[in-house]
Amino acid sequence: MSIETAAIRQGLVDGVRRLLGPRRAVVAVVGAVLAVVGCNTPWATFAFGYPGKLSLGGFPGGARTYALVLVVPALVGLTRRPGRRAAAIAGASGVLGVSVGNLVGVANQGGGFGAVAYGAWLAAAGGLLLLLAAVAAPDDAAPTLAERPLPAVFEMAAVAASLAAVLAVVWYGLGVDEATRFASFAVTVGFAAVALAGLGVISWLEALYQRHRAVTLTASAVAAAAFPFTQGGEAQWIRVFASIGIFATAAIGLNVVVGLAGLLDLGYIAFFGVGAYVAALTSGAGTTTSHIV
């Protein structure tokens, strides 16, 4: 970032801080209330096929659920936790991004802004207020979560739980068929990850993975073995992830032989040839129910 860009950015932050002043907490609470109310009220004035039943109120259906989830990290800025400002900015940006993105999508597919119901406007306004309150928060202190060790049992449980959470997110995401809803889900996951990184959770997990490598590898293998059972008998994503694993293994082998050892030797690929041959034979067997190739 150039000096001029940094100066402009700091000037905007100082302006927001002067504008809100001691009213920052009130603005954040009002923004959260507007976002929560908006996520439980209609985002579309009539039903025209937009995913998520956005024309119905009383529940956070469709993309409204994702915006509602991001309200939680947006309110972290009201606490005293290290990294609260970065987490709050990420959460508020996600609320604003999901609400505005779907507002534009409803207007585009519904024939204009007349198709946009009041709930979308409330959620967008709430996201904007949350973002202003997050920007006006005091500068962050460095997160210290990774520097505070826990009992080994709790750390290993955290490793297993984090990998289970990754599997659950992947499983849920692959079940989202609508393009607009999946885009909202991807935005939510991205901003939630940034919020966790701001709070130091990501660096803490990285330290735990290094400290408990055996548990990490075991839990990763269990998650990979459990993934096919989350697909309800559908083989599409199993084939995709199997191909990704094969290509990744080939790339790692090439890096070890050529990159690290400095040998122009491609003989290791013979093992992939043998594996492909065996898979081609066994996948056509009468007793085989899973098509490997």
Please, could you describe this protein's structure?
With about 290 residues, the chain is an all-alpha fold. The chain is about 70% helix and about 0% strand. Helix 3 runs antiparallel to helix 4 and helix 4 (about 85-110) runs antiparallel to helix 7. The termini are far apart.
Give the arrangement of secondary structure elements.
Elements: H1 3-20, H2 24-39, H3 63-74, H4 84-110, H5 118-135, H6 152-174, H7 179-198, H8 201-211, H9 213-226, H10 236-260, H11 269-282
Helix pairs in contact: 2-3, 2-5, 3-4, 3-7, 4-5, 4-7, 6-9
Essential attributes:
single chain; about 290 residues; globular; mainly alpha
- Poorly predicted regions are none
Roughly how many Å is the radius of gyration? 24 Å
Q: What is the number of E strands?
A: 0
Q: What general outline do the C-alpha atoms trace?
A: globular
Query: What would you call the structural class?
Result: mainly alpha
Mean pLDDT: 87
| Beta strand % | under 5%
Largest sheet, strands/sense/barrel: none
Distance between the termini: 48 Å
Helix content: 55-70%
Total count of helical runs of at least 4 residues = 11
Could you write a compact summary of the structure shown?
With 293 residues, this protein is mainly alpha-helical. The protein has helices at residues 3-20, 24-39, 63-74, 84-110, 118-135, 152-174, 179-198, 201-211, 213-226, 236-260, 269-282. The protein has 11 helices and no strands.
